[in-house]
């Protein structure tokens, strides 16, 4: 069974996609994002899935996408912000190189604007973001091999810090 070289976890807007692509480029491997996989398979946006079917249905779709990607992908893999909520997913991440990209709420506001296009942040986004992080932070930390703070750092600086934390050398 194959396994990703690196798995990125963290909250929405932290830069998993940007840093993931940079890591893949630096390491000479492919990049994959499970949110992109979901959109491709479902033929609609994640926000639409939330609205049409609700969060439990989305989480079931997400779990399948994550488990498939973990089994198939050998490069850098970015998981959606809530993927760590699933205990089976967390178990599959055991023994993997997992980087938790962290940020505080002020950085989240700057990066995402905490906009309504993100379905879990539609009402009172600052409060909801804090609540999401309080519920998820320990799960991100539980699965992480390394924690890389992103606050005040460029994507390139975060990429470098992740490579250093994992002691990986570029291709």
Description of the molecule:
This protein has 171 residues and is α/β, with parallel strands linked by helices. It contains 8 helices and 5 strands, in the order E-H-E-H-H-H-E-H-E-H-H-E-H. A 5-stranded parallel sheet has the order 2-3-1-4-5, sandwiched between helices. Helix 2 crosses helix 4 and helix 3 crosses helix 4. The model has no long low-confidence stretch (mean pLDDT 87).
Order of helices and strands: EHEHHHEHEHHEH
Shape call: globular
Q: pLDDT below 50 for ≥5 consecutive residues: which ranges?
A: none
Rg over CA atoms, rounded to whole Å, is: 15 Å
User: End-to-end span in angstroms?
Assistant: 23 Å
Sheet with the most strands?
Answer: 5 strands, parallel
Helical/strand content category: alpha/beta
Q: Give the number of helices.
A: 8
Strand content: 5-15%
Order of strands, main sheet, comes to: 2-3-1-4-5
The portion of residues assigned to helices is 40-55%
Number of strands: 5
Mean pLDDT: 87
Task: Break the fold down into its secondary structure elements and pairings.
Layout: E1 6-9, H1 16-27, E2 31-33, H2 34-42, H3 46-53, H4 55-72, E3 76-78, H5 87-93, E4 98-102, H6 105-112, H7 125-143, E5 146-149, H8 155-166
Parallel strand pairs: 1-3, 1-4, 2-3, 4-5
Helix pairs in contact: 1-8, 2-4, 3-4, 4-5
Quick summary:
This protein is α/β, with parallel strands linked by helices and 171 residues long. Helices cover 54% and strands 11% of the residues.
């Amino acid at each position: 069974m194959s396994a990703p070289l690196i798995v990125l976890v963290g909250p929405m807007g932290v830069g998993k996609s940007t840093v993931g692509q940079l890591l893949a480029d630096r390491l000479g491997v492919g990049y994959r994002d499970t949110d992109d996989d979901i959109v491709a398979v479902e033929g609609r946006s994640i926000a639409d899935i939330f609205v049409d079917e609700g969060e439990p249905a989305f989480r079931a779709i997400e779990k399948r996408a994550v488990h498939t990607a973990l089994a198939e992908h050998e490069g850098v893999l970015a998981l959606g912000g809530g993927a760590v909520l699933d205990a089976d997913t967390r178990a599959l991440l055991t023994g993997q190189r997992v980087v938790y990209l962290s940020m505080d709420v002020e950085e989240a506001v700057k990066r995402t604007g905490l906009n309504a296009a993100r379905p879990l942040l539609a009402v009172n986004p600052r409060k909801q973001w804090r609540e999401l992080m309080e519920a998820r932070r320990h799960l991100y930390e539980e699965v992480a091999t390394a924690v890389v703070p992103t606050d005040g750092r460029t994507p390139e600086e975060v990429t470098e810090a992740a490579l250093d934390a994992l002691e990986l050398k570029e291709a």
